[in-house]
C-alpha cells in the first residue's frame, strides 16, 4: 500500500483524511517524522500556500504529500480573514478569540452584507505530478456564536450555511457531508491520484 503524507498536525483534519483515504493508502502525518521543519506559508493566496506546503514537506520526507490551505472569506471585511485566517488579528490568537473577533467586527451589519464562504485548496505533489482541488461552502455570518469552537476549526460557529439556512456547527452528519469543502476536495483528489497509478 502506497504511503501518503497529510501535511497537518491537526488531529481532526488527519482523522477526516484517514476516513476518506485510509482504505487506499498508508496515511502518515507530520508527527510521524522527526526533525521536520515547518514550511512557511508565505503565499499571497490559499492556493500558493497549499502548493508551498505540499512541495516543502515532500522535499523533506520523499513521501507523496497532500496539503491544504483555506479559511474564511467575509465580503464585508474585504475578504478577511482570508489567507491570514489564523493570523489576521496581528498576533497568534486562539480559535475562540478568532471566532469572537468575527462576531464583534460584524456587529450591526445588515443581513445582505454578511455574505461569507469557507473552504479552500487541497494540493497533491509527488515530485512529478501536481494536482489541485478547490471547494467552498457559501453562507453568511451569524449574529452570535452558534456551537462549540472546535480546535482547528475556529470559524464554523460563526457561519450559517446557505444551502440549509442552518449554523455550520448544527449540521447533521449527512448535511455536513454535503457541504464540507475539505471532504469534497479529498474525494475529488483521490480519484485523480488513483489515475496516476497509486
From TrEMBL:
Q: Name one GO cellular component term.
A: cytosol
Q: Does the keyword Mitochondrion apply?
A: no
Q: Which SUPFAM superfamilies match?
A: ITPase-like
What is this protein's name?
Non-canonical purine NTP pyrophosphatase
Q: Is-annotated flag, keyword Ribonucleoprotein?
A: no
Q: Name one GO molecular function term.
A: nucleoside triphosphate diphosphatase activity
What Gene Ontology terms for biological process does this UniProt record contain?
nucleoside triphosphate catabolic process
Family per UniProt?
Belongs to the HAM1 NTPase family.
Alphabetical UniProt keywords: Hydrolase
In terms of InterPro entries, this protein maps to:
ITPase-like_fam, RdgB/HAM1
Amino acid at each position: 500500500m502506497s504511503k501518503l503524507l497529510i501535511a497537518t498536525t491537526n488531529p481532526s483534519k488527519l482523522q477526516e483524511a484517514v476516513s476518506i483515504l485510509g482504505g487506499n493508502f498508508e496515511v502518515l502525518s507530520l508527527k510521524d517524522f522527526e526533525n521536520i521543519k515547518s514550511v512557511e506559508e508565505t503565499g499571497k493566496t490559499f492556493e500558493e500556500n497549499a502548493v508551498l506546503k505540499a512541495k516543502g514537506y515532500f522535499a523533506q520526507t520523499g513521501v507523496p504529500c497532500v496539503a491544504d490551505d483555506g479559511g474564511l472569506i467575509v465580503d464585508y471585511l474585504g475578504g478577511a480573514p482570508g489567507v491570514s485566517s489564523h493570523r489576521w488579528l496581528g498576533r497568534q490568537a486562539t480559535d475562540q478569540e478568532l471566532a469572537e473577533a468575527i462576531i464583534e467586527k460584524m456587529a450591526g451589519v445588515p443581513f445582505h452584507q454578511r455574505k461569507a464562504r469557507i473552504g479552500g485548496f487541497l494540493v497533491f505533489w509527488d515530485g512529478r505530478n501536481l494536482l489541485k482541488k478547490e471547494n467552498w461552502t457559501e453562507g453568511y455570518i451569524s449574529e452570535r456564536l452558534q456551537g462549540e469552537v472546535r480546535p482547528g476549526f475556529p470559524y464554523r460557529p460563526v457561519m450559517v450555511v446557505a444551502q440549509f439556512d442552518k449554523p455550520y456547527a448544527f449540521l447533521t452528519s449527512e448535511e455536513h457531508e454535503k457541504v464540507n469543502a475539505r471532504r469534497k476536495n479529498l474525494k475529488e483528489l483521490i480519484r485523480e491520484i488513483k489515475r496516476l497509478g497509486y
